[in-house]
Amino acid sequence: MVVRCGQIGLVGRPNVGKSTLLNCLLGSKVSITSRKPQTTRLRTLGILTENDCQYVFVDTPGFNKSRRKRLSQCMYSALKSTLMDVDVVVWVVDAMNWNEVDESFARSLPSSPLIVAVNKIDLAKKPNCFLKAEIEEKVRSVADPASLCWVSARQKQGTDVLLSDVCSLLPQQEFMYPEDMLTDKSEIFLISEVIREKVFRCLGDELPYGSAVLVESFEDCDNVVKIRALIYVEKERYRRIIIGKNGSLIKTIGIVARQDIENFLGRKVFLSLWVKVKLGWCDDVPCLQKLGHEVIDLGEGCPKELS
Known about the structure:
Layout: E1 4-11, H1 18-26, E2 44-50, E3 53-59, H2 70-85, E4 88-94, H3 100-106, E5 114-119, H4 132-142, E6 147-150, H5 159-169, H6 187-203, E7 211-220, E8 225-233, H7 236-243, H8 248-265, E9 269-277, H9 285-290
Parallel strand pairs: 1-3, 1-4, 4-5, 5-6, 8-9
Antiparallel strand pairs: 2-3, 7-8
Helix pairs in contact: 6-8
């Protein structure tokens, strides 16, 4: 029996559905999602083992030209290193919204085997959306993929074809991880991400990009897991927004986050949330490292495109 295994980078610009696609492929949620651009900040492994093939998917931050803050530089670095390390690149594009950022990103793709996954085809039936022929023409004008797959991560359409095409390009080698392993991330990291997702979803456009979550303590008692987490923001007015009138919004965030965490842990959870103003945390090296980022100073000459 031929056994295949390798790393697959899920890449593309923000909001094309990379994290939703990863969760769909795994059949389990390991990467948070929201409508806010660049919700994904750290590389996240999602591992799927099926019969004679082990897929090691790497979810990445969306490609963004702006790298004025260290946080953006960290995300750029995570994306760039992923493109250099993986065996197969799956470039995810939006069936409803092809733009110049897609073209810019395509020029930076490495020579690794490339598959293009055109996502959100379930929405492309609406007026003023691209037709398949138009999307394919645009993709092939800037890249030469081994295959082009039409998928809907939300509706779980076309994913079998995508997996089959990916498997055919993976190297023949033994599995890298235990067959029952789902992700490389710790429980505490996943809990912090759940909370951050609920902050984004409860506030939407009201909340700026500069917010983060740090789990300060995790105490596994006999009957309940006690969790204390800090929500970092950069300005006092954002702290007031998250707390809400008489603490109403932070209470809602805590309720919906606790429900997901209890489902994830299979245990009763007591969740305590606190909002803290930390000026300039997006540029603070110790803070970024505490949040799990590998800080690499790309300098003032950081290129606008991947090289």
